[in-house]
Amino acid sequence: SQTIHQWPATLVQPVGSPLSLECTVEGTSNPNLYWYRQAAGRGLQLLFYSVGIGQISSEVPQNLSASRPQDRQFILSSKKLLLSDSGFYLCAWNGGGNTQYFGPGTRLTVL
Amino acid sequence: AQSVTQLDSHVSVSEGTPVLLRCNYSSSYSPSLFWYVQHPNKGLQLLLKYTSAATLVKGINGFEAEFKKSETSFHLTKPSAHMSDAAEYFCVVPGFGNEKLTFGTGTRLTIIP
User: Fold this and answer.
1) Cα dihedral A22, A23, A27, A32 sign
2) Contact status, residue B92 vs residue B99, Cβ threshold 8 Å
3) Inter-chain residue contact B99 with A49, CB threshold 8 Å
4) What pLDDT is stored for residue B96 in this prediction?
5) Cβ atoms within 10 A of the Cβ of A64, count?
6) Closest residue of A to B91, CA-based?
7) Could you tell me if A1 lies within 8 Å of chain B, comparing CB atoms?
8) A87 part of contact set with chain B, CB < 8 Å
9) Pairing mode, if any, of strands A106-110 and A10-13?
């Protein structure tokens, strides 16, 4: 069966520091992968999606970037965090038929 | 463009009573529709999905939803609420010809003991 992992689970970072969040999927090959952000009291916002290694589509221009160095690895990064980057970050993969399955999430607090 | 509207931001029910979470959709074609649940500080879990095979869809944990084209609705129901059902619920529609999901604003379900 397929499993999606995210780490770290929680992260507290100062403003201006770099960020790296990792997502990996097991049990499938060449999945479409997605990064979402959920800010406090708000819905989910699609940040990036990837249909293959090195292929990244950005949905919202912002302080973040994404990379896909391996087939089942998706990384979310920032060079300098802003306060507004705080939120709950979710990775997802497409299981076919437009159905997406989500990871456990990373809670990021920028102070 | 596809969209979903969750009619209630917060629903409270007593344990053992029925649950109704409402979702209306807007689409120029017959869409797929999903319900996801999110417990505090957890990822989203797929409850059920409608893909035009049957209008009444049964999901996990005793939930079900009925697709009503005439009413453009996809309401989520459960006959008897359990304390563990307390969570946020999202109605979701995918885009046409792509996999981008559009999420409703969510309904927070509170269960009163």
Assistant:
1) negative
2) no
3) yes
4) 67
5) 21
6) A43
7) no
8) no
9) parallel
